[in-house]
Amino acid sequence: MWYPWRQCVKNIHFSSRCLAKKLKGKTVAEQRWLARQVKDPYVKASRELNFRCRSGFKLIEIDDKFRLLHAGDNVVDCGAAPGAWSQVAVQRVNSAGTDPDLLRGTVIGIDLQHIASLDGANFLSCHDVTAPSTHKKLQNLLPNGQADVILSDMAPNASGFREMDHEKLITMCLSLLELSEAILKPGGSLLCKYWDGIYAQRLQEKLSSVFGSVRPLKPNASRKDSSERYFLAVSADLQKNAGSINVVL
């Protein structure tokens, strides 16, 4: 059963009285943040559908359009905390075995932070996705040591300097090429978040060197004023660059 997310978002209404009550006694910055949260339909919908955060709708929207996830797929979710993307992946690859008539997949989430347990997912909390030891653990946990899909919604802690944060996130995305070389099946896919900026084209070029198709995406669930984007890279051909992937900007 697919999440009825479109209807849920559509049916949400807000109370100005409720908003005023929440804003009382808050600083200006807190008031702005709360006002945005209360008015955001995806925040409310995430509560109604028991998502751990609103970001789950971004993956749902992308997967609805491009059919990235299939029953029986083995998925690695990088930067998984608090777990909304893993929630979506568990449902769509049937890793909890909810539908006995479908193939049962695998979902493994990784994050430097703690991730609360989730039925159908195996979490590696307090693990660095760039570490070779983490790659080895993933190989041991994945069926045949390989993943069909790598997901990444990870991002660095914001420093307040946009260009610096952009470069850090691009570097994190590039590290996923090494992870792909270690665990991704031939023909597999990678979906990774980046912040738009001067190095975005460089990242796309590097992804294109090992994937048959790379396209930039901005789902509707991403806030309009955000530089957040995603690259969807499909049809991995890592053999042609095996052992020689350059992840330096």
Description:
The structure is a single chain. By secondary structure, this protein is α/β, with parallel strands linked by helices. The protein has two domains: 1-50, no CATH class; 55-241, Rossmann fold (3-Layer(aba) Sandwich). The chain is 39% helix and 20% strand. It has nine helices and seven strands, in the order H-H-H-H-H-E-H-E-E-H-E-H-E-H-E-E. Strands 3-2-1-4-5-7-6 form a seven-stranded mixed sheet, sandwiched between helices. Helix 5 (56-66) packs parallel to helix 6. The longest helix has 22 residues, at 162-183. It is globular, with a radius of gyration of 19 Å. Residues 9-16 have low confidence and may be disordered. One of its GO terms (molecular function) is rRNA (uridine-2'-O-)-methyltransferase activity. Residues 51-234 form the Ribosomal RNA methyltransferase FtsJ domain.
Summarize the structure.
With 249 residues, this protein is α/β, with parallel strands linked by helices. 39% of the residues lie in helices and 20% in strands.
Descriptors:
249 residues, alpha/beta, Rossmann fold, seven-stranded mixed sheet, 7 strands, rRNA-MeTfrase_E, rRNA methyltransferase 2, mitochondrial
Q: How many domains make up the 3D coordinates?
A: 2
Order of helices and strands: HHHHHEHEEHEHEHEE
Largest sheet: 7 strands, mixed
CATH topology of the largest domain: Rossmann fold
SS class: alpha/beta
Global Rg: 19 Å
Number of strands: 7
Uncertain spans: 9-16
Strand percent estimate: 15-25%
CATH class category label of the largest domain: Alpha Beta
What's the pLDDT, averaged over the residues? Answer: 86
Please name the fourth-level CATH homologous superfamily of the largest domain. Answer: Vaccinia Virus protein VP39
Strands of the widest sheet, in order across it, are 3-2-1-4-5-7-6
